[in-house]
Amino acid sequence: MTARLLDGTALSQQMRGQIAQRAAQLAERGTRPGLAVILVGDDPASQVYVRNKVKACGEAGFHSVLERYDASLGEAELLARIEALNADPAIHGILVQTPLPKHINPQKVIATIATHKDVDGYSVLSGGELLTGLPGLRPCTPYGCMKLIESIDYDLRGKHAVVIGRSNTVGKPMALLLLQANATVTICHSATPDLARHTREADVIVAAVGRRNTVTREMVKPGVVVVDVGMNRNDAGKLCGDVDFEGVSQVASAITPVPGGVGPMTITMLLSNTLQAAELAAG
Ligand SMILES: NC(=O)C1=CN([C@@H]2O[C@H](COP(=O)(O)OP(=O)(O)OC[C@H]3O[C@@H](n4cnc5c(N)ncnc54)[C@H](OP(=O)(O)O)[C@@H]3O)[C@@H](O)[C@H]2O)C=CC1
Ligand SMILES: Nc1nc(=O)c2c([nH]1)NC[C@@H]1CN(c3ccc(C(=O)N[C@@H](CCC(=O)O)C(=O)O)cc3)C=[N+]21
């Protein structure tokens, strides 16, 4: 069997068209969605991601600002900048790109962003809203993974979903979204002794580890749906995910590519969250 491609580029294009339309309607009522992206330091991957985010904002008709600071920026100065953006009515979403330099505490940064502008969905309140099933801003990457699964009308009810990875930004919220969609969810991590024992039982696998070839063909059952969040480089320097795409795509029923899968959807859901925040602000 050859798997169906869960094409994040195509789904993003479609969704961003709809987002741009809603943004134009909101702009007619006097509110243009606005996103502020803050980048501290010169991590090359982060530079690519923030550029993609700002470009996507422009294409959707959003207002956006990119603030770049030297890695030596003090924590207090960063927090003061965030406070200023909290008070800026033209800004509906604030994103501080991670990783941050070691002298800056990311928890403090997240806690300083006004909750209603936390379009990453990283705040304690957003986490609690997700946990309890209340409406709120969902973390972009897991939210995008759900949209990819929904795009093929796959019904998660009663299915066994295995999430590999338990970070606060990807693995944990991913597991909660799958649970909310009525899947039976297993969360695996670095202390899981026999990963393959779990993945072999899975109807759906979401891999969010950061290590290539974490999921190989022998580890999955035929027909599995595979969502690959990982962003790694192979020996040739090429971008690749956590899943051996070549092997697994021969037995899976659907699989995301890297690049062109979850990555573009993360940015699409960032636009969606920013629009949602702007619509709420406009009343
Ligand atoms: N496409 C996109 O939009 C995005 C991609 N990413 C990518 O996704 C990947 C994961 O990101 P993130 O969650 O932030 O990473 P973290 O490093 O925060 O988390 C990785 C998780 O993987 C677990 N893990 C590590 N080794 C193994 C193993 N051998 N078996 C099972 N689990 C393991 C860790 O377990 P433990 O908790 O025990 O340490 C941890 O929970 C990275 O490649 C990142 O670049 C991230 C965000 C967005
Ligand atoms: N506050 C914060 N919010 C984030 O959402 C956030 C973050 N920090 N830090 C890093 C991770 C990673 N992340 C990606 C976004 C887009 C692509 C993306 O567009 N990927 C393209 C390829 C890009 C390339 O060519 O390198 C693709 O997969 O097709 C990847 C990764 C967001 N993150």
TrEMBL record:
It catalyses: (6R)-5,10-methylene-5,6,7,8-tetrahydrofolate + NADP(+) = (6R)-5,10-methenyltetrahydrofolate + NADPH; (6R)-5,10-methenyltetrahydrofolate + H2O = (6R)-10-formyltetrahydrofolate + H(+). Its EC number is 1.5.1.5, 3.5.4.9. SUPFAM superfamilies: Aminoacid dehydrogenase-like, N-terminal domain (SSF53223), NAD(P)-binding Rossmann-fold domains (SSF51735). Residues 6-120 form the Tetrahydrofolate dehydrogenase/cyclohydrolase catalytic domain. GO terms for biological process: L-histidine biosynthetic process; methionine biosynthetic process; purine nucleotide biosynthetic process; tetrahydrofolate interconversion. Pfam families: THF_DHG_CYH, THF_DHG_CYH_C. NADP(+) binds at G165, R166, S167. It comes from the Bacteria. Residues 139-280 form the Tetrahydrofolate dehydrogenase/cyclohydrolase NAD(P)-binding domain. Pathway: One-carbon metabolism; tetrahydrofolate interconversion. The keyword Ligase does not apply. GO terms for molecular function: methenyltetrahydrofolate cyclohydrolase activity; methylenetetrahydrofolate dehydrogenase (NADP+) activity. One of its GO terms (cellular component) is cytosol. Keywords: Amino-acid biosynthesis, Histidine biosynthesis, Hydrolase, Methionine biosynthesis, Multifunctional enzyme, NADP, One-carbon metabolism, Oxidoreductase, Purine biosynthesis. InterPro entries: Aminoacid_DH-like_N_sf (IPR046346), NAD(P)-bd_dom_sf (IPR036291), THF_DH/CycHdrlase (IPR000672), THF_DH/CycHdrlase_cat_dom (IPR020630), THF_DH/CycHdrlase_CS (IPR020867), THF_DH/CycHdrlase_NAD-bd_dom (IPR020631). Homodimer. Catalyzes the oxidation of 5,10-methylenetetrahydrofolate to 5,10-methenyltetrahydrofolate and then the hydrolysis of 5,10-methenyltetrahydrofolate to 10-formyltetrahydrofolate. Belongs to the tetrahydrofolate dehydrogenase/cyclohydrolase family. This is Bifunctional protein FolD. The lineage of its organism: Bacteria, Pseudomonadati, Pseudomonadota, Betaproteobacteria, Burkholderiales.
